[in-house]
Write a structure and sequence with these properties.
mainly beta, 232 residues, eight-stranded antiparallel beta barrel, 1 helix
Length: 232
Amino acid sequence: MKVVTGFALAVGGVALAMQVAQAADLRRLEPAPAVNSPYYNWSGFYAGVFAGGAHGVWTVDFYRNNNHGHAEEGADGVAFGIYGGYNYQFANRFVIGAELDFGKSTASQNNDIFDNDTSLARFGVFGSARARFGYAFDRLLLFGTVGVAAANLSNNIQKGRNAGEEVVWEDQVKAGITAGVGAEYAFAPNWVGRGEYVYTDYGMVTLYNRDGNRAEFRNEMHLLRAGVSYRF
């Protein structure tokens, strides 16, 4: 009787051990739970819209009959447009990218240089192609940007009231350099808000009227804008 009881206990122990081993094997076959990165990933394409303020700065030097007139005029306007690009985020959370933008500004100025000489300057349509570089703090991205820009400009000079002495440089395309800084925040998985400051120098424009008088315009624009984009 003791032998039978011992044998039964041994068989039961072996069966229990086999059940435990099978359960362990099943657990090993179950897929491991997915481990998501704790940080937001900025890699990918995006497109958005922006609006803000444009501050145009025009430095005008007018040379007439050995006299030199100098004026520095600033004027505010609004700016609005679209932008889009691509970001790539490295494992160390540094981000690089490229971006295009296209917009329109209403900034313009009209200034008297001498008693009877006036200048007119304004910005119109503008755009740029820029490289971006930044660092991501999870959903917050701080970045700098630099690139080339072009704008539709008008620089005019009028001597007195004689229309024949007006030099008109209307709706010309002028290229320049641009740079800026900004911050973006991903407030939803695919939606990103932005605040950005961009400075653009479109260089010099030199005009001569019929009498040989010379006007030199330097065209600069400061752009402070906010935007929202969708990440694809």
